[in-house]
Amino acid sequence: MRLIIMGPPGVGKGSLASDLTKHYHIPHISTGEMFRAEIKKGSPVGKLVQNQINAGKFVNDSLTNDIVRIRLQARDVKEGFLMDGYPRNLRQAEDFDHILMQYGWTVDYVIYLDSPEDVILDRITGRRVCPTCGSTYHVRNNKPKVEGICDKDQTPLVQRPDDTVAITKERLVIYHDQTQPIIEYYRSKGNIITIDGRGSIEEVSRRVIEELDGKK
Ligand SMILES: [Zn+2]
């Protein structure tokens, strides 16, 4: 199954992605993570990416498409994948179709996680992260066993500096501008599944799996 997961920042894509990849035994392809890995390695691609980020830009389309193209050459994607963070604009969505076409593949479903703005703001402002292992928690919806402490390594949890109401609202505006055309693109192809992103991670995962299994 070849899936794309989309949704505004803070809607819970990361947790859902990890549930779905386990359930369907497909790899999670996150362009954000691939870029961070290249930067860490100090590779030529990593340096290009770092320059663009330092200049306050999104990574450009051709570089993003290249990294996706390379990732799709790996063996583990033969049975499918879950794409996260890509495509980010209409141009990339069209390019992605061309890339897949070389393998005779298409996108099966685009899972669009949606939530009202107040729910998203609550998710983001209540989010706490572990600086050691990167695990994320929420002060109400996904509490650690001991308040303020990571379950895995007992590190005190922190709030990311950009997880504020003002910055989140700004990110949402940018998000909607860029993604609305992609949603329309997939809607016209008839493979978009809109899922209510409210509720616990378990509830949202169950909703998605029921929808996908109902399509088979
Ligand atoms: Zn931790």
From TrEMBL:
Oligomeric and partner information: Monomer.
The EC category is transferase
Q: Which residues bind AMP?
A: 31, 36, 57-59, 85-88, 92, 160, 171
Instruction: Relate the protein's function as given in its record.
Output: Catalyzes the reversible transfer of the terminal phosphate group between ATP and AMP. Plays an important role in cellular energy homeostasis and in adenine nucleotide metabolism.
**Localisation:** Cytoplasm
EC id: 2.7.4.3
Recorded source organism is Paracholeplasma vituli
What UniProt notes about the protein's domains is:
Consists of three domains, a large central CORE domain and two small peripheral domains, NMPbind and LID, which undergo movements during catalysis. The LID domain closes over the site of phosphoryl transfer upon ATP binding. Assembling and dissambling the active center during each catalytic cycle provides an effective means to prevent ATP hydrolysis. Some bacteria have evolved a zinc-coordinating structure that stabilizes the LID domain.
Q: Where is this region: NMP?
A: 30-59
Segments of this protein annotated with the region LID: 126-163
Binding of Zn(2+), residues: 130, 133, 150, 153
Full protein name: Adenylate kinase
Q: In which pathway does it act?
A: Purine metabolism; AMP biosynthesis via salvage pathway; AMP from ADP: step 1/1
Q: Highest taxon of the source?
A: Bacteria
Q: What is the lineage of its organism?
A: Bacteria, Bacillati, Mycoplasmatota, Mollicutes, Acholeplasmatales
Q: Which PROSITE patterns match?
A: ADENYLATE_KINASE
Which keywords are on file for this protein? Answer: ATP-binding, Cytoplasm, Kinase, Metal-binding, Nucleotide biosynthesis, Nucleotide-binding, Transferase, Zinc
Xref: Gene3D superfamilies: P-loop containing nucleotide triphosphate hydrolases
Cite the binding residues for ATP: 10-15, 127, 136-137, 199
- Membrane-spanning residues: none
GO terms for MF: AMP kinase activity
Specify the Adenylate kinase active site lid domain's residue ranges: 127-162
Family affiliation = Belongs to the adenylate kinase family.
Annotated Pfam families: ADK, ADK_lid
Q: Which InterPro entries match?
A: Adenyl_kin_sub, Adenylat/UMP-CMP_kin, Adenylat_kinase_CS, Adenylate_kinase_lid-dom, P-loop_NTPase
Q: What does the record give as the reaction this protein catalyses?
A: AMP + ATP = 2 ADP
